[in-house]
Amino acid sequence: MSPPEMLVVLLLLHCALGLQKLDLLYQWKGVDFVFPSKTTKEAMLRSGYYIQDNPIPLDVDVWNQDGEEKVFVTLPRFKPGTPATLTTISTKRNGDNMSPLLVPYPDWSWHREGVCDGITSVFRVQVDTCGRLWVIDTGMVDILVKGRQICPHQILVFDIRTSKLVTRYRIPEEDLKSNSVLPTIAVDIRDADGKCRDAFAYVADVTGFGLIVYDARHNRSWRVTSNYFYPYPISGYFDLNGETFDLMDGVLGLGMGPNKGDDTKLYFHSLASVRESWVSTSVLRNSSNFKDGLNVVPRKFHVSEEERSSQTAAIVVDENEVLFFNLLKSNTLDCWNTRKPYTRNNFVELDHDDDLLQFASGMKISKGKDGRQKLWALTCRFQKHMTGTINPREVNYRILSAPVDQLVRGTACEAKSSALTSSGRPGGYRPIVFEQ
């Protein structure tokens, strides 16, 4: 068979199996913004309020309504010179159709450093099913340099249709540790009637090794403790694409399972870990389980018996209970059908790219007007920021996407059901209990 004939056969096989890799939608060497004026931009550059190579895109989420699409991108204030921390993608381009300018959200007035009624520093966000954007603001700046807490940690909720703030909740000091950093938020809508009043948010404390539960209806919060929120020392060493560093980060990745009516599972893991854990949100929503800093239900928290081949950062779970994750060491997008045991035999590699898939720090599922689920991922080469080797002349930040049904077609992640263990939880999980 000649090379051209072989290529045709491979392409036909690719289509027959439904194998589709992620599509590259946007990419940047460094990001630029839509400024109020050229004069404003020049003034920010002179003052150091904007340093062109310093902003680091970290997370992405998408809102679709009546054919309108809004793509949110976060840029935590890791370094000086990040003028806006929460943005949307503009239709304006900076000389490259794949490198759009970013528009501060809701507008520039919210991004004045040190003004605590605005937005200080956002790692991740979540768009809920009610057309709202949930924002966890750490209140910290210069996080990768020396880290300064200049404003309180807060949860902000915006009505995306109007870009108006509907909720601001400043997290009480008693729910925090002196070193708390809150990088991830997962939202749990509990209303059976679709009125969106009964909602909870779960917020990871990556350095305080805890979880904060926010009850939106009653406007209160509490802290959850578990040994599974801590880093695993043996997994605190990272060797990613030739860059090595140590990072003992605790709970970071949060993935909310689909709402089945009476309960939902929250999947979670520490960044310095190669295991996955989960807990029913009914456990988290009962504040009496966590009074006085104690966890009286440690056996309700579960951890996988088997390990991944490397650490992972962001995760997301689709409506069919399939969990997607990026293996940081191998630069792959993988999936796991959570109805099956958590074993490597049940992990499916969906995509592998040593350039495009370096460190997926943000991962979300959106649903278009056709009802199809779409996976979105933001990759940021974060390992190079940890080692100081980022090259501003290379493409460093990318947003990729693909329809979920095409990604998983013909794989174990397409399965609709599987047996549960006698304990009622997916096989391959076990509670490892430490006395509190």
From TrEMBL:
Keywords: Glycoprotein, Secreted, Signal. Pfam families: MRJP. It comes from the Eukaryota. Belongs to the major royal jelly protein family. It is found in: Secreted. One of its GO terms (cellular component) is extracellular region. PANTHER family: GH10609P-RELATED, PROTEIN YELLOW-RELATED. Residues 1-18 form the signal peptide. This is Bee-milk protein.
